[in-house]
Amino acid sequence: GAGVSQSPRYKVTKRGQDVALRCDPISGHVSLYWYRQALGQGPEFLTYFNYEAQQDKSGLPNDRFSAERPEGSISTLTIQRTEQRDSAMYRCASSLAGTGGTYEQYFGPGTRLTVT
Amino acid sequence: AQTVTQSQPEMSVQEAETVTLSCTYDTSESDYYLFWYKQPPSRQMILVIRQEAYKQQNATENRFSVNFQKAAKSFSLKISDSQLGDAAMYFCAYRSGNQFYFGTGTSLTVIP
């Protein structure tokens, strides 16, 4: 595919369950970002990878949230023991490079997570 | 901390007219980048225009242009000859290093 893909597109889970959200970036893109977007708000930075290295995880709200990108391509955002306040759109974005130039971020369609 | 403020939650414009969306940001950095993203009802995020802080010349992309005032930390988006397809949520974003910060968005309605 030509763009960033995310799966699942929609996820409904019960409070206390773990969820794993997948992001498949554009081939060759070095940098990968995870964001959370509440309805009516802008995207909120969660974490950032350069290749397989997690460069910045300062936006992860607490230790129930974790992310990995073991082979420098596909990334997984995991939320353990989900709570209702975790309900949001989770977006992934990739770019050719992270820190240099005005490299555009290409956003995926997002995963809409609902915790009941 | 860097923050991005969009003070207009909603704006409307007549088709073919011009509208300006405002954005201000707070930073102590001298090297950074600014962006406007469009989010239509499909909720995709589409880059509209970008600006490097070190460039004094305002960026322009067809009907979209910015008014970048570095000293005032202001980065407004002007949409000329508005079209129905311009109706969307618009987000201003600031990037320094590897972190992006987004504003809360402005919902633009285009009136036929």
Structure description:
- The complex is a heterodimer of chains A (116) and B (112).
- Chain A has 116 residues and is mainly beta.
- Chain A has strands at 5-7, 10-13, 19-24, 31-37, 44-50, 53-56, 65-68, 75-79, 88-95, 106-107, 111-115.
- Chain A is 0% helix and 47% strand.
- Chain A is globular.
- The relative contact order of chain A is 0.33.
- The mean pLDDT of chain A is 91.
- Chain B has strands at residues 3-5, 10-14, 19-21, 24-26, 33-39, 46-52, 60-61, 64-69, 74-79, 88-96, 99-102, 106-111.
- In chain B, strands 2, 5, 6, 10, 11 and 12 form a six-stranded mixed β-sheet that branches.
- The radius of gyration of chain B is 13 Å and the shape is globular.
- Chain B starts with a strand and ends with a strand.
- Classes of the chains: A mainly beta (116), B mainly beta (112).
- The interface between A and B is medium-sized, with 26 and 20 residues.
Shape of chain A: globular
Number of strands of chain A: 11
Whole-number mean pLDDT of chain A: 91
Separation of termini of chain A? 33 Å
> Into which percentage range does the β-strand content of chain A fall?
over 45%
Low-confidence stretches of chain A: none
Counting DSSP E segments of at least 2 residues, the number of strands of chain B comes to: 12
- The rounded distance between the terminal residues' Cα atoms of chain B is 41 Å
Q: Determine the structural class of chain B based on helices, strands and strand pairing.
A: mainly beta
Unreliably modeled segments of chain B:
none
Radius of gyration of chain A (CA) equals 13 Å
Note the total helix count of chain A: 0
What helical percentage do the residues of chain B reach?
A: under 10%
Order of helices and strands of chain B: EEEEEEEEEEEE
The description of the largest β-sheet of chain B is: 6 strands, mixed
The general outline of chain B is: globular
In oligomeric terms, what are we looking at? Answer: heterodimer
